[in-house]
Write the structure tokens for this entry.
Amino acid sequence: MNNNFVKGSWQEILDWAQNKSINMLHYCTGCGAIELPPTMTSRYDMSRFGIGPAATPRQADLLLVTGYLSTKTLRRLVYTYEQMQAPKFVVGFGSCTINGGMYWDSYNTIKQLDKYLPVEMYIAGCMPRPEAILDGLLKLKKMIADGEADGYQRYEENKDFYHQNQEAVLGEVQRTQ
Amino acid sequence: MDKNTQTEIFFGPNHPGVPGNYGINYQFEGDTVTSARANAGHLHRGFEKLMEERIWIKNTALVPRICVEEPDINEMVYAMGFEAIGEIEVPRRADYIRSIILELARIQGHIFSIGGNAAGIGQYTVMHWGTLTRDYLLDIFEEITGARVYHIYIRPGGVRQDIEAETFAKILDLMDELENERFPDLEKALFENPNAQKRWQGKAVITKEEAIEMGATGPVLRANGVPHDLRKMMPYAAYDDVEFEVPTGKNGDAWDRIKIARDDMLQSIKIIRQLINKIPDGPVQADLGNGLKYRIPKGDAYVKIESKRGEYGYYMVSDGSLKPYRVHVRGASTPLGLYGVREFLPGTRIADVPVWAKSLGICPPEFDR
Amino acid sequence: MIDLIYKIGHFLLITIFTMALGLLFMGIARKIVARIQKRYGPPIYQPYLDVLKLFGKNAITHGFIFDFGAVMALGGVITTLFFIPLGSWQLYSMEGTVLLIIYLLAVASLGMAMGTVGSGNPQASVGISRALTQMLGYELPYLVILFALIFRYQTSSIWGLMQAQAGSFLNWNLFAYPLMALVAFVVLIGMMGKKPFDAMIAPSEIGSGPVVESGGKYLGMLLLQKSITIIIELALYVNLFLGGADNIFSFSFKMLIVWVLATMFGSLFPRFRIEDGVKFFWKWPLGIAILQALYIII
Amino acid sequence: MRNEKDLLQLMNAHFNPLKLEIKREQNVSLEFEKEELIQALSFLKSHSYKHLSTISCVDWLEEGEFELVYHLFSYTDLINISLKTRIEREPGIFQTAKEIWPVAEFYERDIHDFFGVKFKGNDNLEELILENWQEIPPMRKDFDTRKFVNDKFEWRDYNGQKHTD
């Protein structure tokens, strides 16, 4: 992965193009995923903002973590995140990704998402409504256009912080590169 | 699995064709699945442990989050379990309102699964129409309970609040709209579509003996012509006051199950109309004293109701304290999701694996809990 | 020398124009499908943004075969552009024969096949094996039709076939041989991989088939390849059955009509399974094509 | 079509259950000795109780026993029957019901995951729901989930004050 993210006018054009067309990974990790179909289909129609579902991590730029994460899902999520290509963004859904939410004392779910993956933005709600999802994604588009959405760079820079936390919960994790 | 002829596909937790966060690792040769294994556990949050840490009334907020497609089923079974152990009499009006909520949830669940099945075979238009129709039902739920999906409305002893008259009128209008406009569209686009019939006919066949042996109930059993429905066999809430038929199929394949889902919805509309016309007056909540100090005597009970996928049951044990001693959740698709994948998936084609998984209504949070 | 520069300039102009037109058609298709599904859908210029974004992203390569596959697919398709008369523009299309086009299209899909095998993902190889079987399916009726046409007009060059339909629109092949045009329309949907014949890129079964491992610029190249393929196949159909056109705008307009019809037709049908698709091709279209061919020969 | 009482007489005639109880209309529960339960299961299966809803396990920590509950249902009698038995907590071994109902293999694997009960005759008892879990089975009463979460995970602190204290 080349690390020289040069901040030039070319980068601004790419940021502008990135925010106009986002491929959201179709991976419903938690119970919040039930509010995604209404957002993607006719009533709230996310695709008019250029956000559409992508079938595989390779083609995706946006990783929606929809709700709580059991440790088993966290392992697969880390693999998925590392398969995705920069520039990539993570959006945390619902209170379960912020502070464990309803399952704060469950032995099998993680309590804070941003200890394991760089999170651009959280959408609050114990399953946020489609309007909240759209509002959040529009804010994300603005952040991308202004170049503030640099989660993937933060992940590169303090890679060992994230890897330590992941290994603390998951034990050994296979690394791709 | 010999390496040279068979390869393995992780029809994994992250895949558009899989129903929810659940994986099927199958080996295939040519285009046919040879062996398969369920890769469950991705949605495990330890519900039963959490329920033992919370007092009775607090669990009503936790319980609907078990199965996301049909939250009201969990609330109902939890309330029925509490009332069964404590021998609590629920006012008749609350029974009627509970049945209305359950039937609305059934319609919402069935439309969503028909949309999901259609998306599995590439018919995205029906998915869009189905999810749009479901949203109208969520608006009704929002009007009654204040929330779209998790309603926390059915409580031990009754329901949280009454339904006003104009909400009943809205429900009746929606039922007419569903029956005269929405369903005929779906009928023409999907059920009269030769392609869809060809994609579903004869696929994912589960015979009567296999279903009973495995403990699978609901559309999987009724698709073989067996009219088993817990609303008829063990009537609960207000189902003994309404008449309705139990739709059945003939040869137990995906096509019959999806037609049963459609006929179930039509029956639910009939039930809701009868319930609204005959609803008695009276209180909607039995007087159980202060919610924070609910306490029922020592005892246990296994209660079950008919969810859209079949028998959904709780085994609840109370030791007389403020908290439940043990709650065991029996999801409707547990036998199919774990055992059925290993026994009945081999032999199907790769193109039919999503048809197999979605038409059998495998809902992973039920057996991951 | 000047002639060579003129030719290169002309060639670049055609390629860029075709890519832009193809992406515009894909944007229109997404809008139509969205309207059928009672929603707004992305703006018409969305595919341009997708391609620009894709070329801005990093991409992981799976070895030389993977890269070469994508380049070969795009290259193969661009070479076929030489030989197709696009309305008034014709580079070498004097010599372009129908069989050459069929051969060059096969080269492009073989290139994609090589690329996906290089990616090593089992879902990609299942996808590409489906694509090639489907090609087998629709090639048969298509060749019967082409031989019938060639026999009828005694020339195999597209330009010749197009000239044969000059004059009033009455002697377009669409009206001369309506059944054959219908069969060619169904085969066109199969060639473009639109629903109900998109078993090879079925997202819910094999995670978008051959392109499952290609992200970033590889996906951008394959998107461009798809846009050019659409234009080529539409141009072939318009030339053979709608009498081509003298200027590029009426040519594009005719292509647009055929494209809108194909999209509407496709958006209401679920996906065939791959062997049902091939069986369908060999049952009705092949039968009608043979009937029509006999009618011409006798 | 038996009603609840006939069912109890039938069971009384063939086995000697410790406790018979009609809990509610269409709901009956019986308690058996450890050794007799498997025969009672196959006996009932041959008498139209073909549907095994699920197998539950309750951990009675004070009495030092696990309680296994088998829930059956008959499509002709329309009666729900729960067969209970008690096994000691420590060895926690019981025979498998796999031969009678093949699906029981997964219910037993689930109970093994959460309670650590070993079922003789059920060979694949490896992890079904949890993934490389080192502590004691989580659903046992002596496993404290809040203490475990305190050590392994870290709650978010809102300027110095954890959201849970």
In short: Chain C has a mean pLDDT of 83.
